[in-house]
Amino acid sequence: MKKINLKSPFAILLIGTFAVALILAFSGIRLDLTKEKRYTLSDSTIKVLESVKKPLTVDVYLEGDFPASFKQLQSETKFMLEEFRKINPKIDFKFIDPIKTKMSQDTLMAMGMQPSVLPDNKDGKTTQIYLFPYAVVKYNQRGVSIPLVIQQSNINAEEQLRKSIENLEYNLVSNIKAVATNKRKKIGILVNQDELNPREFEGFMNLALESYDAGPIVPKNNVEITQADVPLLKQMSALVIAKPRKAFTDGEKVILDQYIMNGGKTIWMIDAVNAEMDTLTRSKKVMPFPVDINMTDFFFNYGLRINPALVKDVKKYALLKLVTGEVGGNAQYTSLPWPYFPLGIAEHDHPITKNINPVKLEFPTSIDTLGGRKFKTHVLFESSERTLLKQVPNYVELKEISSVDSLGQMEKPSTPKIFAVALEGKFNSAYASRIERKSYPGFKASSPENKMIVIADGDVGRNKIIKGQALPLGVDMLTDEQFGNEQFLRNALDYLLDDSNLMGLRNRNIEERLLDRHRIADERTNWQYLNLFLPLAIIGLLGGLFFWLRKKKFG
């Protein structure tokens, strides 16, 4: 019998391929050949995972009999957690079937999980499947429930699951970081300028306390912020100013300027016009007027100007539920378009606004961005091309709801207007060349790399109150809608305070490589025959070739 030449190119290729396959199989090394590096953990993720010092477990309630689309989410979650465990063996996980383990829905809901209800068609009968697609991270007697499916309206189920898979790495690792971090960053809520009251700001406080320590900043003299408050301000990683209605003094502006120059992050929710829906509902009309908080020069230094004119968007707007009739003594309600409540819809590729529900704004104004600044200005939300501007003071009447497209008194068509921006870079002090710099010990003329968010609506962070109870932020009980205000502000805080660069993971895109369903239906029979007979033909051809070679050699 003829010996195989081990030095032949074919033999070398065969042995090399077998050796590489053996090494990969036993070493656990995986090669990510996808264009978007779908199966490669980011450096930021690896850094967070390596920082976990004690055992951390992840219980995933995604096991059992459910549709194939959720099987894909299960598979992606399992792969992700396996990669986490390779980076840090202290991280472990298990998949739990809540139905098989007979966990009650009340128990699961008490853990912060809301069920997903899916229809199931079997044998001509339609039943409902209850799923709890959540992961629970436990670390050092602390825990958090993480929804694995993003809550975004107006998209189909396939798109929702695809976006959930895109968001999976950020979703898991950001919560692992929040649970495993011993020292949490502090957020100060400024309380001195007639801002939103505690009940109206309860929803924001709840979301902030999930990952940070948050509390009020009250001036020691109960009048204005002074040098006596600077030590407390320096402890705050971020400062939130929500709907100030009392003017800032020049001394307060210098202190806020220096807070920013020393690296402090800020979120500004500013009303440049005073207009309240409660007053309008009672009296059917209201006279909005400009609000001057003495911050025009302050924001001008950052290349921003907040305009005192109401923005009406006659294309992207929220609905207002009103009594429009009565039947048998029962009021009849109708949801009607209200252009003074425009929607912030993500149209720019930014991690703060990606994959969230539309954000509801109430009587917002607009922001002009000015050039000549060295830092970056990112537009987060802006109105549609069908925008109207209403100059104030001017009447806003409830009857305008019947003719949203028509021009009223002192109104004019406008180009799209900016509602919210994020600033990023090194800022220069507005007081670097002014005499006020001498009033602040250790004055700094410029900041390190810093971030700031400015929103031209003071109500974006205000939750509704029903019968004395604060509703979750973004919930509208009258129209039964869940807006994205809570997720928007949560992402805003994470963006400002993200020292691990995890927010970049929210911009990950997974390209769908789907089969052509119409072609599958049209060519189904041809491909079935091909799959059936082609392997048989190949085997027959190889068998005939082998028989012919053998006969030629030995015959």
TrEMBL record:
Alphabetized Pfam families for the sequence: ABC_transp_aux, DUF7088
Limits of the DUF7088 domain: 35-137
Protein name: Gliding motility-associated ABC transporter substrate-binding protein GldG
Keyword terms: Membrane, Transmembrane, Transmembrane helix
InterPro entries, alphabetized: ABC_transp_unknown (IPR019196), DUF7088 (IPR055396), Motility-assoc_ABC-rel_GldG (IPR019863)
Lineage: Bacteria, Pseudomonadati, Bacteroidota, Flavobacteriia, Flavobacteriales
UniProt entry tagged with the keyword Nucleotide-binding: no
Residue ranges of domain ABC-type uncharacterised transport system in the record: 184-492
Transmembrane segment boundaries: 527-549
Gene name linked to the record: gldG
